[in-house]
Structures are given as C-alpha cells and as structure tokens.
C-alpha cells in the first residue's frame, strides 16, 4: 500500500511540472516565432478577373517585386466568374496561413448590394493586407455626339431627358455604378444600355450607337489620343497626367464625386498577425518601388502602397457608398 501511495504522489508531482511545460510549448508554437520561416513555399495571389486587363497588370507588377522582398515566388492565379464571387469564395474558405491571398477590386465592395446571399462576409471574412493602387475612369463620348466638354454634356443631358444612351459592361459593373452615381448626383435621366463585357460596349460607342460610357483610362488611352473618342471628364479625385485639359467630375460642380477602380490584397480571416505584417511590408514596399510606380503611371494607374488599415476603411466606406448608389438607381439585388 505504501509503495502504491508513493507512486501516486510521484505521478502528481510529475504532472505538476509537466502541465506548465506543455502550456509553454503550446504558447511557443502559437507565438510569432512559429512563423519566422514564412513563407517556405510559393504564395498564390488569386485574381477574380481574366488575364490582360489593368488588374492583371497591377497584380503581376506588384507580385513580382513582392516575391523578391519575401524571397519566395508569388503565383498570380486568374479565376474569373460570377462577378468575382468564385475567386473571393475560394480565398475566404482557404486556410489562413498566408499562402492563399485575394487580389480584391471595387466589385468586392459593390457585390454585397448586388447579391442577396454572398457565401462570405465582405468585411469580416478577410484580413486586409495592403492597398496597391487605384485606376481613375474617364467619361467618354462618341465623336458623333454634339458635346465636347463635360459642361456641354450636362447641359445637353438636362435639356434632353431620356435621350442620352450610356453603355456599360453589364448591370452592376463599375462603369454602370459610376454612371448611376453621376445620374443621381446631377439629376440626369439617361438610358442604360448594358452589354456582355467592355469590348462590345466600346465597339458600339465607337460606332455611335450609344452616346457615352465610363471606362478605365488604360483601356482607352489609344482611342483618346487618336481622337476616336472624346474624353469629357475624369471620374477619380485626381487628374490623369496624359489628359491635362480634362477636368475631374468633382471639380466640375460635384464635390466629393470619386469613382475609381481600387486594387488591394486581402487574406482569409484570422491570418496570423506576424504573417500579415510580413505580407503588408512586402506589398506596400513593392507598390512604392520606383520602377513599379512608373510602369503603372504609364497606364494612368496610381500606385498607393498603403497598409491594411487603409484597406479596411476603404472597403467599409465603399460598401455604404455603393449601397446608396444602387438604391437610388433602383437596382435590386439578385
């Protein structure tokens, strides 16, 4: 009996010392030091759009530089579909280890108002990492229209309600949202003509079958320079350097008007803080790299390189903004 009692006592003593040691080991596993080697293998940057557009250009330019800073490859993975929902859902459900990231764009903030049931929470479902860039749009007019300036366009649209036809790449796309916001702010009555993509809408604008359209500057710069389309106004807060005589909508009587294609990197929710910090440092530095800044500026894209906190604020504000715009335009969520 005495021997049995001693064994129990020894066991209790051993457990008494073992439990703190186990907890200490667990804490060390969960501590930032556990991710000191990150990244140990290639990172995937999921892009919700097809190759070739301005988003693809920014993603690849910044990813190339960030991979150098992280000493690990970053693979841009294009996964278009459902207005970005396919790619966004994939990242939302990915393991929060820093190896699967999302290249988010303006549609990330407008989709909550366009779709009744998203398979993720656009804010809580992600870890904001970095704001890379934004791309101003240009309000374009067919050469067959009687107006050559933004002021002349406004005067004509107000004097001819329902006569101006504006094109978009489809209901709920960024060009549609921007024109809907302008129509609301300026109290204009125009006819929306949605197309299945930017290319066919641009073709009809060139042919004069529609009157005006908003598009990212990079995709139409050649058409503006060759005088095949007229640039009436810039939709973002800043001027486009290559269009010195073209005003912003904000300075043309609509203070605060701002509609740009912003581009950011997000991770799944609950990304470890130390991993988030490493990614934020690499992506913000990459976006500010002089060679990257110039490459983007040549396409009319503004490099930003801002931290995750700026991304979180932007997404929150944009969700509210587009909800109001779509409500005013009478667009019902699908």
Automatic annotation (TrEMBL):
CDD domains membership: PBP2_Bug27
Signal peptide per UniProt: 1-36
tRNA processing among keywords: no
Keywords annotated in UniProt: Receptor, Signal
Record has Iron as a keyword: no
SUPFAM superfamilies in the record: Periplasmic binding protein-like II
Assigned protein family: Belongs to the UPF0065 (bug) family.
Protein's recorded name: Tripartite tricarboxylate transporter family receptor
Lineage: Bacteria, Pseudomonadati, Pseudomonadota, Betaproteobacteria, Burkholderiales
